[in-house]
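In the previous chapter we treated chains in isolation. Here, by contrast, the input contains two separate entities that must be folded as one system, with a combined length of 670 residues.
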Amino acid sequence: MKLSRDGWGGLAALAASLFLYAATLGLKDNPLVPIGPGYYPRIVLGISAILALAVLIADLLKARKPRAAPSEKQKLNYAMVAAMFAAFGLYCGALPFVGFRIATFVYLAATNAMLDPPASTKGYLRVLAVALVTTVVVYLAFERYLDVLLPRGRWTDY
Amino acid sequence: MPGHLELLGAGIAGMFHLKYMVPLVIGSLIGVVGGALPGITITMTVIVVLPFTFGLEPLQGLAAMIGVYVGGETGGLITSCLLGIPGKPSAVATTFDGFPMSKKGEPGRALWLGIWASILGGLLGAIVLVAATGPLAELALAFGPWEYFSLFILALSMVAGLVESSLAKGLLSGAIGCIVTILGNDPVMGQPRLTLGIAWLEGGVPFLPVLIGVFAFAQIMTDVERMGLAKTSDTIDAGVKLAVSHLDVLWDILSRPFLLLWSTFIGLVIGVLPAIGGSAANMLAYDQAKKFSSRPEKFGTGIPEGIIASESSNNANVAGSLVTIMAFGIPGDAVTAVMLGALTIHGIQSGPLFISQNAALAYGMFAAYILAHPLVLIMLALGVRWVLRIVIVPKSILYPVVLVLCVVGAYALGNSMPTVYVLLASGLGGYAMVKLGFPLAPFILGVILGDQIEINLVRSIMTDSDPWLFATRPISGVLLAASVVSIVAAIWQHRRMQRKAAAAADEPDADF
């Protein structure tokens, strides 16, 4: 029996709710208060597990429509989404090591080029210029005028 | 104690000080541009502005955000009318008549009908905002923990019930939001729970990075999916004639007083309802205008009524959202949810005590809302052509910059990386929710209200362990009954829609 996106969503929510519910069973009650730290979480997780099960069952009982042929379906660029998430993850991971200025410049240039690949030297220069100007403006605005200290790089001290 | 009008007067006079006026002007300008940019929502614009407000006084920051909100609601109509592409979801209905009117050779009339209707709707909304917030907050002062608990449950059930896809998914989405709030130490005794072995989770998950991540990534990544697959023709003829007789346009609107008032009322009511927002307000107002019209068949062909209904309702919606957040501490939509976060950062508790404890701030917010309207009007009168040039900024540049500002905003919350990791995780989670068809509004409301629901539940039980008090205390009982009614109504509505869809599917195909 195949699940649709509703079914998968329900299944994931059910698994997460049950896992966390099990984790609440080890919580010890506080003698000073009538209800312990696990009281409310158990209510929320119990409700979410029931709702997730309802979504899952509704999906299993739902009559399936025949799948549209690939040509009829709208093709979406999931590879680009994955690349954007990967780039953002790398950026977040790199921030404490190389610092805000270097990481942001590289991230902006890379993602800009990914989303709109430059076709000429002029295009590459535009990408680099946008990345540089944005990095400098954001850095100056926050560090100098708004007193927000942006991450320094552990490796670069910059 | 100064009276209501004196406080409002002082608020307006105070807003003319440069230190408040500059953020308001800049916020309004950014709002107009952000609202006009197709694919950039007002929520995203306010998220971008948020980190810039951290170093400001609370009223400066809130004035900037209110400027963004009002400017965004008005700016969104520019591309709706001239391109046929709504700048934001709350301007979708403006497209139905605004664009046809432009195509008929009246782009200036379409544009200015929208602008003036926005301004008038927004200012009418201001009357309700100023008059109703105080009394509603006083009413809420009579609430005990039982009533607050029931009020928050009502808010969640209403939002879950109003989502279009499935009631169960709406409710589940709200429950998932509440799950986010149970991670970390319990809010009453501070006992560790569900930290999953992660030390920084002991303080709980901060809601602002969650909100920023969910909304920014859900919007940007769903747009990225389509990038490079089809060329759009988002070009505006910068030489388009926008000159118009403002008196004629104003007469177009004021000669339809019922339409203006009714659409404003709809916008206000939708705004007051938690986490629904202008996207529902403009569609409902348009639908109502069509139903009440003596010429419904003309809707969609470029008539003023469609533009007036949509635009007056979405600006009035802003006022309604502000009422809810200022009187009850419940965000009326995503933008006010970000504002709630900004208040929290400054250590200000929104809710019934907000006005009495922060009168200068509250009346300053009223003043900012009122003054943002003429400011936006002046900006558009002077620079609408300039805005037309800006809306062609490529998204390949815009989106990475927005994501960098999201990182800065998340990082600045605690000057630490964990909040940035929360942003990343929330972004992934938000995108997954969108792809799995889970509505985001109940989730966000769950994240915002989850803690408060727990605190009030525990307080009420610690005061009196009788659980029936939730049902037998009059206000609490009414609120809980309203929650049940809203869920039953949602079930009925979903079933009705399913029956209609089934009936439509059974009808023979006309083309066959």
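Chain A has a mean pLDDT of 90. Residues 78-145 of chain A form one domain. Compare these points with the single-chain example from earlier in the chapter.
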